[in-house]
Structure formats: C-alpha cells, structure tokens
Amino acid sequence: MVFRRICKAAGIERPTGEQQPRVHDIRHTFAVRALESCPDGRDRVAQHMTALTTYLGHRHVTDTYWYLQATPRLMRDIADRVRDARAHGGGR
To answer: How far from the centroid of its chain's Cα atoms is residue 73's Cα?
Structure first.
C-alpha cells in the first residue's frame, strides 16, 4: 500500500483497469539498465554480473542471467560483437 501511495503522489499511475506499477518493476528496470551500462571486456562483464547478482540477492549468478533476455540492446550488442569477431577470423 505504501508503494502505491508513493506512486500516486509521484503521478506514476496507469488508467484504471491497467496493471499498476509494482516494486518488482523497478527492480527489473534497475537490473536491465545495469546490464546495458556494463563495461566492455569479458572479465569486466563477469565482474559486473557477479556484483549485480550480489546486489539483487540472487544465490547463483545463473539466476541473474535471465535479465539478459529482457535486454534487447545488450543482446544486439553481443550479436554484433560475435558477428564482428567471426568476420575477423575469431572463431566459429
């Protein structure tokens, strides 16, 4: 109830009948944006994922990986890097 009152006071409401914002929505948005701002480099990404896993309170880093699926921009960036690496002889 407190969260709903805060949303109402902040003017963050949807029309009646539509799903109202939830605390989990804010958590999800945070996680996705954190991944989108992840630094380049495999080691740095691993450190970032470990830190995000800890921050979100997940027991295993694999519990955090599903946020990657909700991050189209990050998935596109990964696909672009793989394509570029393959174009330059970086594997199959």
So the answer is: 10
| Cα–Cα distance for residue pair 77/65, rounded to 1 Å | 16
Calculated CA dihedral for residues 16, 19, 27, 65, nearest 10 degrees: -160
Say if CB 69 and CB 32 are below 8 A apart.
Answer: no
Rounded to two decimals, what is the model's pTM?
Answer: 0.63
In-domain check, residue 67? yes
Residue written as token pair 């909700």: 70
In 3-state terms, what secondary structure has residue 92? coil
Q: Give the pLDDT mean for 60-83.
A: 76
Whether 92 is covered by a domain: the verdict is: no
